[in-house]
Amino acid sequence: MTDIDHEHPSEEDKRVDEIVRSGPRGALMVAGVAVALVFLMWFLFYFFAFLPRGNIN
Fold it and tell me: Max Cα separation, the chain?
């Protein structure tokens, strides 16, 4: 049927399994940095654009 030997995985298969077991750390890190940048930009815009204008009546 196939040439895959599930009983004796190769070294590459072991490395892939180890990487997959560690989880999506990189993707979570990129998402966290993106969210932090959005918050930073929002606060900068708030402090330097909205607050200096004061109350608008």
Answer: 77
